[in-house]
Amino acid sequence: MEDDDQQKATDLVQELVLRLVSQNPQTPNLDPNSPAFLKTLRYAFRILSSRLTPSVSPDATAIAESLKRRLATQGKSSDALAFADLYTKFASKTGPGSVNNKWALVYLLKIVSDDRKSAINGLDSSVLLPNLGIGDGFFRGGEAKKKDCNNGVLLVRKDPENSRDEAFRKYAVLVKDENEVNEEVLVRDVLYACQGIDGKSVKFNSEIDGYAVQDSVKVPRATRVMVRMLSELGWLFRKVKTFITESMDRFPAEEVGTVGQAFCAALQDELSDYYKLLAVLEAQAMNPIPLVSESASSSSYLSLRRLSVWFAEPMVKMRLMAVLVDKCKVLRGGAMAGAIHLHAQHGDPLVHDFMMSLLRCVCSPLFEMVRSWVLEGELEDTFGEFFVVGQPVKVDLLWREGYKLHPAMLPSFISPSLAQRILRTGKSINFLRVCCDDHGWADAASEAAAASGTTTRRGGLGYGETDALEHLVIEAAKRIDKHLLDVLYKRYKFKEHCLAIKRYLLLGQGDFVQYLMDIVGPKLSEPANNISSFELAGFLEAAIRASNAQYDDRDMLDRLRVKMMPHGSGDRGWDVFSLEYEARVPLDTVFTESVLSKYLRVFNFLWKLKRVEHALIGIWKTMKPNCITSNSFVKLQTSVKLQLLSALRRCQVLWNEMNHFVTNFQYYIMFEVLEVSWSNFSKEMEAAKDLDDLLAAHEKYLNAIVGKSLLGEQSQTIRQSLFVLFELILRFRSHADRLYEGIYELQIRSKESGREKNKLEEPVSWISEGRKGLTQRAGEFLQSMSKDMDSIAKEYTSSLDGFLSLLPLQQSVDLKFLFFRLDFTEFYSRLHSKG
């Protein structure tokens, strides 16, 4: 019966092949016994007897696209278009008479095509169409068919001892003998290890610091290595999880902070996605792993190799998180954000996107601190994480010392220049609020937020928006700094106060200074212990009322006060008298104690210079030609008269030299130093854009005055030489006064020489000895005064020569021009060369 069925099937196949071949135009009348027909029939049986087990998923569209691309790459574009058109028609047909399993038909045609090409190229085609069981004798006759029927297709299918199935069974037995546990158990243990949990066979080994298959479990070395590689994810997970737990247990400790808390929250979010993946994998692990010889009942089973594919992306993320955890253990705040930012500079899109997502969460508290500081002036930094640090100080030190940058907390994605601008913007708001009692900054901050396109609400800024942050800071700084300067200039009259200091402390108000010098001069000549500051304050008020100073703002005049310097027992009033200007909030930010001390040094220097000038003017008033000196020449002997004329001439020449020096030096101070410095300061004050610029301009102005006035540390030598000259001029004043007092007394005594009644009243006077004694005493007095004048002149010339020799050595160009003014006739240069 079986033979009849086999013969019937063979005949049907032969008839089918004959009909198909007859429809070919090239072989219309092919003989069934011809070699070509038998070859075609044999090939048909070979196809029917082959085991076609595809290694790809059943996707008709994919295989059609593959065939179309193959034809196109081979240069057969027209064939590719024809195939695409035929396949479209073939795939669109549905219903009765259509092919249901379209993918299988297309795959069969592809295999047949590949097999024909292999036969043409002389390759072994059994690879594509294996298990052919038909020999050539099957087509030689009935006897041959019966004889060779053992090689037929039906025998292959009926063979209970199929070698392929037997080989798979032997392989399954071999695998079972080599593995004490099956792969499903290992997969589940690996999934447990990836959650930090020990499984039956895979446990944490402290010696190797990782998860591995226990040594007592018998598995192949390759399996053991793969399990170790996959379990690395569990070791990384354990490190990250431990860091999160420890950090959150320590919160709210200062070493964790809000940025550290945000970092832990970001890591926890990533671990939540990781947990979801493990849940999916655990569900797939419940499906059994099919043998190679079996077809899987479900494609969602999980093997170790499939697990390695699933773990590729989580492994990259977990390794990166572990690296960040190690890096950030000892960091906090801005330093932590900066360290994480450095790892975001990566070319891998996966790593870059992951780090961007992580940094948005981590930097959220930091950007909120920046927003609050720039727009509200609030330092919301409980744990010291911000790169701006505040400290309690006095009101006058709020701007200079109240807030500083903390470089260690400055993240690398914020430049130092931007950080300085952020610092200054917040300081400006606090200065306006605390020192100026002004709230107009709020409107300026709102305008800045609107101009930059951001919002004043929380969460308006985030990581990756550095340009938006910089734009916001620039707009806020521009508006708030402008408002701050407007408040200082208009409400607190900063410019007017600077001008008042120039007028009174720098002696720019000439009539006031001259009148004050005249009325306090006699009092300041007394010992300092005998002078009352209240009396001097009265003199100051009198000088104000008697000069144009009375028309200045009363608030500024009330700030001008007399200050008595610390003094000893031998000091005079000239040594301790000074003026001071009271700087109140917020001007004391500019006029600090150190600044006012510099102004005090400049005032004392200028006051000493004015005293010297005043002394020379007093000498001139005394020594100008008048009736006293002219009448003194009448009754004197010729020798005494010559001595008197010599002394007077010596005094006049010395006064001219001193006056030349003092006049030119005072011109240098008042115009080359004070006026030029004030002009430059006024220009810089107008160009200032913020309070720092204003402070820098004022500091430059004051330093220029101190430096050019020979009050700096580098000018100590020449300053001492200058003060020696001042002392010599004051000594000259006292000697000149003595000389003219003596001449005046000589005139009086000459008129009274005949009055005997006065002899007893003045026993030590020149008159008591008669005219001869008067002439002798006058000669001795004039000789003594001439010696003193010569001594002063010699010291003055020597000191002046030393002073002039030091001027060219000074750094300031203006001092070199002062040397030119003092020696424009080269008199002192020639004198120095002769000496």
TrEMBL record:
All copies of domain Gamma tubulin complex component protein N-terminal, residue ranges: 187-490
Keyword terms, alphabetized: Cytoplasm, Cytoskeleton, Microtubule
InterPro entries given in the database record: GCP, GCP_C, GCP_C_sf, GCP_N
Gamma tubulin complex component C-terminal domain span: 496-828
Intracellular or extracellular location(s): Cytoplasm, Cytoskeleton
Bilayer-spanning residue ranges: none
Stated family: Belongs to the TUBGCP family.
PANTHER family per record: GAMMA TUBULIN COMPLEX PROTEIN (PTHR19302), GAMMA-TUBULIN COMPLEX COMPONENT 3 (PTHR19302:SF14)
Protein name per the record: Gamma-tubulin complex component 3
Gene: LOC104708436
